[in-house]
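User: Hey, my collaborator sent me this sequence without any context and asked if I could get a structure. I don't really work with proteins. Can you help?
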Amino acid sequence: VVFSFIYWGFGFLRMGTTGFVAQDLGARDLDELRATLARALIIALTLGVAVLLLRAPAGEIAFWALEGSATVEAYA
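Assistant: No problem. I've predicted the 3D structure and written it out in structure-token form, which is a compact way to encode the shape of the chain:
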């Protein structure tokens, strides 16, 4: 549940980038296209590192919020 929430929560990056890339390609503005892709990659890498660094605290909060049993927590 938590993984799906986080995974689909980042869908905004894909959907937002697609529109800007399409506009840049339509205008044949390759410099802005590169800048758009660079911004998207920087955001994705930053969020990816944040998820990796915060996975333990986020897991604790998720188990608390979802009231996972000790057996479930042991297998997770």
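In plain terms: DSSP finds five helices and no strands in the chain. You can pass these tokens on to your collaborator as they are.
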